[in-house]
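User: I'm curious whether this sequence folds into something compact or stays loose and floppy. Could you predict its structure so I can see for myself?
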Amino acid sequence: MICKWCHSKHASESMEKAYWELPDGSRAIKMTHVPSISCPDCEMVYIEDDIIDEIEDHLMLIDTKNLPDVFSYQQLLDQPKLLKKNYFKF
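Assistant: Here's the prediction. I'll summarize afterward.
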């Protein structure tokens, strides 16, 4: 895997924590075990765009009032959806 920041060939997949503001701006949450990329050469840890889009979309489709302050990425995906798709994404 190649690091998007330093172009090293030593980057690898990892599971990291991430902090997110809910779409309504009511609070921030901590998500654990988020699929990420970690580079030992430049020490950058980042989440790829497709995972970010998936998280953002899912947060728009669920009742975020039921979310605890800390939960895993999989727990987010397991939340029941209130809508079939994100109608706010253009």
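Summary: The chain has one domain: 12-77. The beta strands are 12-21, 28-38, 45-46, 70-72.
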